Amino acid sequence: MADANRTPLLDRAAALLAGPFLLGRQALSLAFLTDRETPEAPALALQRIPVTPPEHAIKRRG
Amino acid sequence: MKTRLPDHGPVEAPRFWRTLEERVETPEARQAAHDEFLPGAVPAYDDVHGLPPQSGVSRRDFLGLVSAAAALAATVGCDRKGQGTVVPYTKRPVEVTPGVANYYASAFQEGRRVYPVLVKTREGRPIHLTGNDEHPGVRGKTSPRAMADVLRLYDPDRLRAPKAEGRTIGWAGAEARLQGALKEAKATGKPVLLLSGALASPSRKALLADLKAALPTLEHLAYEPAAGDAAEEAARASYGQSVAIQPRLAKAKVILSLGADFLNGEDPETLAAWGAQRRLKSAKEPINRLWVLEGPLTLTGTNADHRYPVAPSRLAAVAFALARELAAKGLSLPAGADLSAVSGGAPADVPAQAWANLVKDLQHAGRNAVVLCGAQMPAEAHQAAHLLNALLGSEAVALSPAEPLATTRDLEAAVQGMAAGRYAAAIFWDVNPAFTYARAAAWKDAVAKVPLRAWIGLMEDETAAQCQLVLPENHWLESWGDYTTPGAAVLQQPTVGTLYDTRQGEDVLLGLLKALGSAPAADYHTYLRARWEKAVLQGGTFEQALHDGLVKAEAKTVAPAFKGASVAAAAGRATRRTEGLELVLFPGFATLDGRHANNSWLQETPDPISKMTWDNPVAVSVQDAQTLGIQEGDFVTLTLEGTTLRLPAVIQPGQAMGVLALALGYGRTTGGVAKGVGANAYPFLGLDPATANVRPGARLAKAGGRKELSRTQSHHRMEGRDIVRSLTMDEFLHHPQGHHHKPELVSLYEEQKFPDHKWGMVIDLAACVGCSACVVACQSENNVPVVGAEQVAKGREMHWIRIDRYYEGELENPKVVHQPMLCQHCDSAPCENVCPVNATNHSPDGLNQMAYNRCVGTRYCANNCPYKVRRFNFLEYTAYKTEPETLAYNPEVTVRPRGVMEKCSFCVQRINDVKIRAKGEGRSILDGEVTTACMAGCPSDAIVFGDLKDPKSRIAQLVTATRAYRVLEEVGAKPAITYLADLKNPVAGGHHAN
Amino acid sequence: MHPFDRAFRFVLPAAAVAILVTILSVGWLTEPDRFAKGYAPEQPIPFSHQLHAGTLRMQCQFCHTGVDKSRHAGIPSVDLCMGCHKVTKADRPAIQKLARIAQTGEPLPWQRVHTLPDHVFFDHRPHVNAGIACQSCHGEVQTMKVVTREMGMRMGNCLACHRDPHAALPPGSKITRGAEHCAACHR
Questions:
Q1: Looking at residue C50, what DSSP letter applies?
Q2: I need a labelling partner for B994 at 20 to 30 A (CA). Which of B156, B557, B773, B982 fits?
């Protein structure tokens, strides 16, 4: 790769366009989960965990 | 473009997304937390360039990429919706007012120790723990690990439903299976093994007795790997039974510690007594003297007035020699004690003059002297300590009968039994022998021979992996229980309903009892209450006991008598010499026996001596490191009796030559946080209980390579600046300010006026032992994030308060001073002037305020801070957290995102709350009404917070103390925190260094 | 100067800035101001303050019980509503919906009208304790059929009153200024 022709201008132009494009695409894909599978991090992570008051406990002060 | 809220139900506040990712735990999101750049940015760039993948993008190129994308990102990130929804209760629980905290009294058991606590809950969730203020012993204080345990309630790795053969099943099925196995065992008369933790609960003990009555072949072992087998063996030899030894420092004028780390934070009552004795106002007040003889440097050793490095295997010989000397000086030996095996004269381990002083001190103190021995020290050393206490007639120690603990000998017998197919079933309740038993392979093979193996615990561990039935247990914050402590019978009550489908271990046992034919109660709550109403409550109501968390009652116990006949054998064994290096295995500060390894708060709290986090390197003495050519962080191979471990080494000043120290409880193989952290030292444990934790014949060699250590501090010298001060009693009396002069400060700025209050703090270094309870308390109260080993190595730990540990003097046995360092809330703060966006400024009541929303992350303030107490969120430490971890947050404090500077706020949320309440009640704020988390957490009351403008406040008196000074006062920042110099009480004679 | 140089040094940045400005201004103009006065979202149950607080003269604190105890005023729990509505107007479809919610325990998602960003820790207690009427910030709620946001509730609004509160305070109040330091609300 070191001996290929270097085209810095072309590279930078491409990066300037490709960068925001890819970033934006990634951003959109993260913001809109429609076309994504529900991530396989356990579904439990997304469910709210029920926090219920204890039974028969007496509090000290409120 | 609309951002869609995650579909998990309505939320009280609108979700403003600070980063693009919503609360989705994708692997990419997790990775992104580690990367500086959004996922995809780095590979995309490399693909475009056709370059081989780099580990990162250069800053210049990154800016080029992102600047054009910023607009797009910004618009997508905006919240388009309204304010979100607000959902009230359908049926409001009477005791909950949203926004107001409820406090419940409960108790936490760790090994043999019981910690009465007060649990602060918000909207039904426990979020913060302190000690139970009504308890006559702890009086509102508790240990760092107890405070950190609230995080374990919300551990994502907690098992949420029972499992059989790895598949989730219901409780009905699980219990049926267990009950079936036990019924069968009863029918065939085959023994059942029940391995549990220490029995500190009378009701649990009664329940087990009931179970034994219903199933006579039940064999119960109470197993605590961190309790020290040697201590247990020694107690049985000296007293004929298991004994609890509790120091009573209030009565102690001279304390001799044989490797006993009684000041390490595990015993808040003793620390309170220590603090009371050392927080002197004037040099004329009485003070105790602490002598420490130990191998590895412990926290107690750092607080000693005199410390001498002595190899643990030599402690017994030294102590028996001491006994012999004292007997020669007229103190009467207990009947039957035979010290003929002990050679006369001073042992070589201690300098002659020091020896003479020690003997004199003990002799003169007599009943007011106490000798304590470290739990892991060899049994002979314990027996020597028992003898010395009996010899001195010590009143500064309380001996009481204790529930026996299983030693490795008992476990070995159990292993043999299991391997022989003796047992019909084995139940493991809150123990992890697959990890803590020295011969893991033998254990695994033996356990496999038991037909039914059941495990009851919080999160699946190494032992659960070997069991068919895995039953999830309630966390103690969801449980009922009771304990006996000196001075009070303590209750444990649930402070939150069970978060998952878990049961209390005792309820599982009650189910077993029912299946076996007797049914003492429907559930453990009823069982407990019935017992209390019958035996414990003397006239009071159960509700009142729950409210207080205890019933005051002096436990009526008979102190066990010392058996003089036990001395001869111990003295004989004590004269053995050991060759080579001796390896001391001690319970880790953060992990204890490994049970807390999954607690990220504890893993990140620096070990008070080595300041290590997230790892357990082997500690090597200065001399041995020189001999072996080892440098800090070098990988070494540690070999002992065929077991070899490759791990990093640290050099520990003060550690006795020939002694290696290694913490237990690391090297876990289960747990999202614990896995792979550190090395498992349990295989090195000895099988002879008398010397299980002090092992001779270890070999150490360089293994090549170095590890970047995650240490929060590498100071070994004070660099000449006036940061910490330590005075001997003589200096305290004659020149408490030493050669330091109060600098004359000239300022360009006008003095700020503080019309109403001026908050300040006084930290007494004489009382601070370095236990780090304040660090954990602050982390709990202020949502301080955890950053992980890699980031700590880069110096990015986030603790708002840290304990700086300074060595002074010779490396082989330095003096050590601990200094809590936090934002000094300087009147003339160097950080306030330099913030380009005015995110930090001074409040009219003396606080240096931090407005997180304004901060743009210039970090100029941190650069300017002379105390280096400002912490920057270099990475996104919090945005990816989901329930249950987010349930632990304190709702009164912002959760900071990436790019924001944070620091101690003097718990401004507490100050504001008290101010508003006082104003609402039409009164002024009382002294002591506002307690910062660190002040409330400090067991020795080293930290005092208050209003400097109130002449009657405690802090106003302390600020004028003769040994008061401010850190780096010459810089002119005018800190609001005053420190009181550390005090040491060496033998009068003027020597400052040992 | 090389022509490419001119393009990259002047034209391209100018174009980028122009695009940026366009996106930002379009975005800003089309975004609803979430702090705007007049924000009156439709509620799941057509609760009328005009009826309850106005005609029936119910006290604010009767339902919003947290104002003097906690930072948050709170929304009344459904069982508080059912206290009257178990009987009152039980035939109305809205009340029947309420009763169903009370029975099944399903959440009642009120559309939040008054809120502040996460970095603001507002506390109702000192304001209520000072005798400031709810209407000072929330407008004449007792005339609202649908709760409408009457005040932008930006920091400027808060500070303006804190600097000169006598209009909002009851007569005879000794308070001259409210808190002006950051930590009072931002922590």
A1: I
A2: B773
